[in-house]
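This protein record is not my work; I was only asked to verify it. Would you go through it and say whether the fold makes sense for this chain? Here is the record exactly as it was handed to me.
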Amino acid sequence: MVRFLLARPIAVLMTFLALMVFSVIVFRTLPISLLPPIDVPQIVVKVNYPNASPEAIEQNVLSPIREGLMTLNGLEDMESKSGSELGTIRLTFDFGTKMELAYIDVNEKIDRMTNSLPSDLSRPQVIRINTNDIPVVRVQVVPKPGFDFTEISLLTENVLKKRLEQLEGVSLVDINGKKDRIITVSPNKSALRALGMSEENVINAIKFGNEELPGISVEDGQFRYYLRLATRVDSPSDIMKLPVTSEEGVTIDLGRVADVQYEINDVLGYHLFGENEGLVITVHKQASAKMNELLPKVYEAIDIFREDYPQVDFELTQDQSVLLNAGISNLQTSLLFGGLFAFGVLFVFMGNYRTPVIIGISLPTSLLISFLVFYFFDISINVISLSGLALGLGMLIDNSIIVLDNITRKRKDGLPLFEACVEGVNEVMSALISSVLTTLAVFIPLVFLSGISGALFFDQAVSVAAILGVSLMVAFIFLPMLYQFFFRRKREKPVTDEDSRFFLGILRGYKSLYKKIFSQRKLSFGIFLLLIPVGLGMAYLLETSGLPPIEKFDAVVSLDWNEPIGVEQNKDRVMSLLNSLEGAYLKSESDLGVRQFLLFDGESSLQEASLYFLFDNQEEKTGQMQKLRSLVIKNFPNAQLDISDAPNAFDQLFASNMPYYEVRWKDLETKKPIEESRMDVWLEEFPVEEFSRGPGLQKEASVIFRLDGGKLALYGISTSDLQEQVKRLFGMYSIMDIKRFGEITPIRLKSNRANFEEILRNNYLTGKDGNEYALSNFIRFDYENHYKFVTADKGGIYQSVLLESDNPSSSNSVISRWAADRNLGVSFFGQYFKDKETIQELIGILLVAVLLLYFILSAQFESFVQPLIVIFTLPLGIAGAFIVLLLTGTSLNVMSAIGLVVMLGIMVNDAILKIDTINRLKIKYSQSLGSQEALERSLFEAGEIRLKPILMTSVTTILALLPVVFSSGLGADLQRPLVFSVIGGLTIGTFTALYFVPLAYWFVGRGEKRETRIET
């Protein structure tokens, strides 16, 4: 096949050129994003129920919704949490569930149960979670002094949002911090009382004055007209002209008995940029959009906004394209330095410029054609797929070096140029195919990991398979064709000067050390075997983490004041904290109280705040955050404070709401939360000391109104009248909405804001005898501590504690006895169990990978023993990587693990080629020599033949990665653990391939114990 293709160089060249043209076209159409568009198998149902307690939301809203959603296909878990005015249900599905259909199914079921939910409840909001929901950038909109905030809110909602949504690639624009305008009606109660009227007369007048006739039409000859009432109101002045009539027939303009005006609706949340109040717009991209093309459009749009709307300041923050640009720059750096160092190393080793040029052409060719595979597998260009390409680049250089070196060796043996190309490729073809298959045997099984990890590995596995597959095609066809082209003028000359003096010196040193090691074979082999457990044992000394510790100059502070304060007090407290930092930060933004984001799937309350800070350097960040923590602890001892690095897209993707280890129990008798007084006593007897209360046991102070039914009956006052009066007095009572052209302006009845005790004393209800009685006669109140949240799962309401010990499962038996003594059904839940399941799954997958590796090598070597030599080289490489990680103080994390895979792929490649060469030489020499002498000579000569490609591959890879060690920035921080793993593993791995493989082969393959002098 190779001979056939190389005999037609023009056809091969045209084929590769056509592939590259198609690849360029495809590359321009591939979506570029930060992460693969993964459907996170979760849906969140949010309920907003003003003035409702956690118990009321659980009983009247969440419980029936949970029952209705119980039959969803693929539903794995269901968690609900109800707080004051807000409830959430988080649905978790089996990974692989079609989330588009699940989303439609959830909405349909909620629509069906709408009639069984409270009539004054707005429709529950259904939020589907996707990696594309992570905003790519945040736009700060800050009104300049003197401009109306509500007007800026309308500008943001109706103009800025729509202009950003029109940008190509934008899927959604979300807003927080808006202030809506409403019309308030404040009745003059003394005037109403004097005229024999009540608030009900005012309310009815407004309702009648804004009625619409539903589809009524009249005929006028041959024409038909639809009727519209001319009394429809549009503004406060229209409302004040409406007539109010008493039961005695007295009529007066509404403006005489009530004050009507525009006001800002009750503010439940604020957004601050620095210390200035403003709005924030989050921009979300489409799955098929290119992030590196979308962000410049957003920046350009903001520049236009600055010119068009000088009354507003604009700023862009938290640009998520930084990570993607870091990944792209890392790939570019790898290509650049890989090419430069490959050229330099090959020149040093080979002594000619043609071979490096050939590799320089093959690298970008392979990379470009790989994007065709991306297109057919519907893979986007993202950080994960780019890392897969970066992994394959090392193997790609390796394959190119091996093929070129073997062709050169065949020319040294006297073969003509064409025959040398054919024989050189054919000789290493099976070994290279086996090495690629062994690398894929490690990657492909990882696709079957459950959850998001498996989905992410799919992109990486496809990209690795793509570049390795293409690299084989390039190495077997394109490289020998280029070799023919570059060396065609040397066709008739014998090749004797391809090795440089530098390499000849290394060769002499290799032979000398080889003799010394083989003179003490058993001792040397024992030392190698001893290194395996010692090196692997260093894993216990390494710290473990998820992502490597990236030097981040930004931080997020999550605050829960844990006191029944309003959002205004929340804002004052946050402002005091910002003032105390005295502008030590570059940028800050804060979201206080209830969030208005459509896609916000978390929980927010009036007492919560989230602050983001960007600092100039790490020292400043550490110092200011410590200062902030001490200020909060000193001034607000009840507050719960959490300071962390600002999450990037990876953190948000892998973030879990699941606690580490949670002990849950349910009251088997009442199916309700256990009373606070009983629960406090039981928790004192809890058998574990280190625990914290779960959400269902957290408390908050509340005021409880109790109605005196006896007095209400005595004075002839109905309970419904009393409840209606309480609704009007405490908060904004909604009369109706003015709707025009999509804009809705609520009309609210406004009451005097005062202490609730004063309100109860100064407001009255009319009894059956016509006299007025103060509300305080019928309402008693108490201050009580009540549960802040009511939590539930598929089985119903539960309460829980969170364990914080290193080995939490050791207490399961005593906790179970504690629960059984109190007639509680107990269960254990948390990330602890998920991690154990993932580790077990990973161990199983790695065992499958090792078996695949063994099967492939057995087929390649036609031996059951020789594959064990390759497998035993791997722990030595891992040991070398662990030593370097330990010396540099680097943790064992995702990036260092990827580095291990890269290093092992190159090590396996070298070991396979070494054994393959030994096998071929052994067959060759066994025809003329005895078996033992043939073995000795094959081991020595194979080492000499493979010395150059092994050294060139290792040195090229190490030098190409070395600049990352001395670089700074986000990209370098991410890649540095990978580099340390590769450098450490290849340093030991190269020595292993040169000396351990022949030693192990000698112990495995010797037939007769006979001393033979090594021939030089």
